[in-house]
Specification:
Length: 258
């Protein structure tokens, strides 16, 4: 097992055979999807299917990272003063097949430093939902940062610390129109995540899909959480250790999209 990444350049990971095969299978399906032109107006179901698949690719990359380093990636790497410098999205690049891009990134300067800002326009397609009308270098996918989520900040969480069970704990969410460059170490806060799905007046977990927003759970499954999900139910799904793991926390309608 390799050591967890530090402020210096993390070593380029060597993927295990089984991990590599899984990645090839998922990426093959992804390539089939992106070869089909998507118009979010005329093909909303196709856009939602592609979004679901991209979240699956990101969740698989998270698990491959966890297999390599012993923990999920931290939400960000920070400088000596605790200021976020580098996003989890950069740490996932080798596990998404973008090793060349990863090796161009410099960890000895901020995400928007002289070298790294040159990479800001080269966002991998895996980070963009086809239903998101934002700029092509703005990410659609985020983690939820909070002390009791899978991403408390700079501290990486091990799988064993998800005591409610991966199947009951949200790993990744989508949020539209946030105007966050994919390199920026900025995500959805726990307070924002608790506001609900597609909240009318404030930022939260959101999408341009009809009826809800797509999320990935820590077991790799994906669900379209409906707009009507009770806020308490959503809170339980966001927290990794609330002590109330139960399948009933999932909205019944969401299970049909798995």
């Amino acid at each position: 097992m390799e050591t967890l990444p530090t402020q210096t350049r993390p070593p380029s990971p060597t993927l295990k055979g089984g991990i590599l095969v899984s990645a090839i299978v998922l990426l093959g399906g992804f390539l089939m999807l992106v070869m089909i032109p998507v118009s979010t107006g005329s093909h909303p179901a196709l856009a939602r299917t592609e979004c679901r698949h991209k979240l699956g690719i990101l969740a698989l990359a998270m698990h491959n990272y966890q297999e390599t380093y012993g923990a999920f990636p931290p939400a960000y790497l920070a400088d000596k003063d605790g200021k976020p410098m580098h996003s989890w999205r950069v740490l996932l690049l080798p596990f998404l097949g973008h090793l060349d891009l990863y090796e161009q990134y410099r960890f000895d300067e901020p995400w928007n430093g002289p070298n790294n800002r040159r990479l800001a326009a080269h966002m991998p397609a895996e980070f963009h939902c086809p239903a998101d009308v934002g700029a092509e270098n703005h990410t659609s996918y985020f983690v939820v940062v909070g002390p009791d989520t899978v991403f408390p900040g700079v501290v990486p969480i091990r799988k064993a610390e998800i005591t409610d069970g991966p199947v009951n704990t949200i790993l990744l969410v989508e949020a539209m129109d946030r105007q966050v460059n994919w390199l920026e170490p900025k995500d959805v806060t726990y307070e924002e995540g608790r506001r609900g799905i597609n909240p009318s007046a404030e930022r939260g977990i959101s999408s341009h899909h009809d009826g809800g927003a797509m999320v990935a759970f820590a077991d790799g499954s994906r669900e379209l959480l409906p707009d009507r999900i009770p806020l308490e139910q959503l809170r339980l799904l966001l927290e990794r250790n609330d002590g109330r793991p139960a399948y009933m926390h999932r909205p019944p309608a969401a299970s049909t999209t798995r």
